[in-house]
Structure to design on (125 residues):
């Protein structure tokens, strides 16, 4: 597996303002996901993403990239063995698969995702 970047997520303290800004700037298609407090970003061609309220109080708004992995548990364990800090343990995402978030040894955050068989892709269509 090539481990491509497949999703980019905005974690923001002002979701309404962010939606208005990015829709106006890029004409992205924004789709709220019922029951998830999450907005998918459709970009047409290329890697799509999502937006959500920042779950970490005091952390500035930021974009987080996702890399597709075949085995989320093995990938997270390997990252930790290479010196990464696991910020969010492997977590199920309904209808999609699983994710985890690490900070690498330099302090940069990166998310990994593994898809459930037959699930939608992480990238917005």
């Amino acid at each position: 597996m090539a481990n491509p970047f497949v999703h980019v997520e905005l974690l923001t303290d002002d979701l309404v303002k962010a939606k208005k800004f990015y829709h106006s700037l890029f004409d992205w298609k924004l789709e709220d996901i019922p029951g998830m407090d999450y907005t998918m970003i459709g970009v047409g061609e290329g890697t799509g993403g999502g937006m959500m309220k920042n779950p970490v109080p005091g952390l500035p708004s930021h974009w987080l990239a996702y890399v597709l992995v075949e085995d989320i548990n093995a990938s997270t364990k390997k990252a930790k063995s290479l010196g990464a800090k696991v910020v969010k343990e492997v977590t199920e995402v309904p209808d999609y698969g699983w994710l985890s978030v690490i900070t690498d040894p330099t302090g940069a955050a990166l998310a990994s995702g593994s898809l459930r068989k037959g699930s939608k892709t992480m990238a917005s269509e």
